[in-house]
Amino acid sequence: MIVLFFLVFLGFLIYKRPDGGLSKGLISAAVILGLVGLRAAWGWASVRFGARLCHIHTGGLAVTGLFGQVKHVIPWDRITELRHVSNLSPLLTFHRFELERRDARTVAILVLKANPEFVPALKRASELAGMRTEQ
Predict the structure, then answer these.
(1) Checking DSSP bridges between strand 79-88 and strand 132-134, what pairing results, if any?
(2) Residues sharing a CB contact under 8 Å with residue 81, sequence separation 6 or more, in sequence order
(3) How far apart are CA 72 and CA 91, in angstroms?
(4) 64: which of 19, 48, 98, 135 lies 20 to 30 Å off by Cα?
(5) Where are the beta strands (DSSP E) in the chain?
């Protein structure tokens, strides 16, 4: 939302051409580039340090939290259903998995890639565990 606001503001500056518009436009462009750069740096750092990952093991899944700590451990025998929803449009590409558990809340896993290695690996592991999948 912030990037969208600054893009609209930058468009307004181009259209109206107020006094000091160049400096205001440069500040807006710097804010946009800074926010995009922070997002890219956070994405790199979270992958580098193991934050927000889902690890597939023979006994089940381990989902890490924001700072790399284990948030959920889900054995295969406690998962009753695996639901998969995907959107592969050019503007928004994701795969969402919902793991229904017998004794706890549903765990949602969101993968933001078109063809990640995680999707076929999770499907294969769930089939080997004898889980019911729904698409």
Answers:
(1) parallel
(2) 99, 100, 131, 132, 133, 134
(3) 30
(4) 135
(5) 54-56, 60-64, 70-75, 79-88, 93-101, 107-111, 132-134
Q: Report the C-alpha gap between 15 and 93 in whole angstroms.
A: 33
Phi, psi (deg, nearest 5) at residue 10: -65, -40
Instruction: Find, among 35, 75, 69, the residue nearest to 52 by Cα.
Output: 69
Name the residue among 76, 84, 2, 7 with its Cα closest to residue 39: 2
Block means of pLDDT (10 residues each) for the chain, 135 residues, are: 80 80 81 86 78 84 84 87 87 87 87 84 84 68
**Token pair 């609209």: residue:** 8
